[in-house]
Structures are given as structure tokens and as C-alpha cells.
Specification:
single chain; 3 helices; mainly alpha; 57% helix; 3 strands
Length: 134
């Protein structure tokens, strides 16, 4: 009988040890630290800049001739400029600092790394490029 009680006690302790992290996550922050409009604008900005970079690679790789490259670059540059302005407007509307494009991490409600990725406050590594945050 004593063996059964000890076994039950050990099983309960093991189950508690396994379930504790799941229950503790319930207290975690479940809301975005930045408004959805800011996150969407930042995502569009990253896509526009990545598209320009990809266009440059295609041209240098010989996939595009000069006339096509120039036409697409002009169109994509205008789109990228519009998305950059929209991202800045969304950040200012949300009350977040516009921040310059420098190589440091700005500590506000969200962290914006030099690569342009917006990380949640308290992040130890950039989710965009993997670099350790200061």
C-alpha cells in the first residue's frame, strides 16, 4: 500500500513538472506590442526593399536586359518609396518613434534592428537576421 502511495505521489510530481511550463505560458503577454497597422506597414516595407534587392541580383546575373531593368527599377523604387512613407506614417500614428536607419537597436515598445526587422521588446536576438540584440 505504501508503494502505491509513493508511486502516485511521484507520478503527480512528474505530471506537475511537465504541465508547469504550459500553465506558466498562460500568464505570458498575449497581445502584440505594436499595432497591426504598424506591423503590416513594416512587412510591406521589408518586401518592397527585398524586391528591389532581388531585381538588382537578377540584372547582375544576366536575367534582365538594361531596358527592362531600368523600367522595373523605376516602378519598384516608386512603390518602395510609397511603402517607406506609409510605414513611417503608421509608426507616427501609433506614437512610436520614427527612428533613423542607424546600426543600433532602439529600445521602445518594439525593437527595430539595423536590418529593419521589428522585434518585440525584450527580445535577445533579432528574428529577422539572428544577430544578438544589445
Amino acid at each position: 500500500m505504501m508503494l502505491l502511495i509513493v508511486s502516485l505521489l511521484l507520478a503527480l510530481l512528474a505530471a506537475g513538472y511537465v504541465v508547469r511550463p504550459v500553465v506558466a505560458r498562460r500568464d505570458a503577454l498575449l497581445v502584440d506590442l505594436a499595432p497591426g497597422a504598424v506591423m503590416d506597414a513594416e512587412a510591406r516595407r521589408r518586401v518592397a526593399l527585398a524586391s528591389l534587392k532581388e531585381l538588382e541580383y537578377d540584372y547582375l546575373g544576366g536575367k534582365l536586359d538594361t531596358a527592362d531593368y531600368q523600367a522595373q527599377k523605376q516602378r519598384m523604387s516608386l512603390e518602395a518609396l510609397a511603402t517607406l512613407r506609409a510605414a513611417e506614417a503608421a509608426r507616427s500614428d501609433a506614437g512610436l518613434d520614427g527612428g533613423g536607419e542607424d546600426a543600433t537597436v532602439t529600445r521602445t515598445a518594439v525593437d527595430r534592428h539595423a536590418c529593419g526587422f521589428v522585434n518585440p521588446a525584450g527580445s535577445r536576438f533579432c528574428a529577422g537576421c539572428g544577430v544578438r540584440l544589445a
